[in-house]
Write a structure and sequence with these properties.
two-stranded antiparallel ribbon, about 100 residues, single chain
Length: about 100
């Protein structure tokens, strides 16, 4: 039995990376959770060291793109939270819309 047959998770991660290269996929369609999950899978794959150098480089590039996407989504969330207005003298909490443009 080959190493790939023993570890089907590796095949899944490699196929996923091949389907979504860093330069080809629009990351804006991914939720934070989806991007983080993909990033964790790439980290696991690279830590195991069971991929070729070329695939590791591709996975690293994809991981860097996912990292940037996750950081941007977290920054958007932080800014949205900062837009929440708390009244000084009781009353209801209001929010000011956050514009990402």
């Amino acid at each position: 039995m080959t190493q790939e047959e023993q570890n089907p998770e590796t095949d899944n991660a490699e196929e996923h990376n091949a389907e979504s290269p860093a330069s080809g996929e629009n990351l804006d369609r991914l939720s934070f959770e989806e991007a983080l999950s993909q990033l964790e899978a790439i980290v696991d794959q690279l830590e195991r060291g069971d991929v070729s150098l070329d695939k590791a480089i591709d996975a690293y590039s994809r991981g860097m793109a996912l990292k940037g996407h996750c950081q941007a989504r977290l920054e958007e969330a932080r800014l949205k939270v900062e837009q929440i207005n708390l009244p000084e003298e009781g009353g209801s909490v209001s929010t000011k819309p956050f514009d990402t443009r």
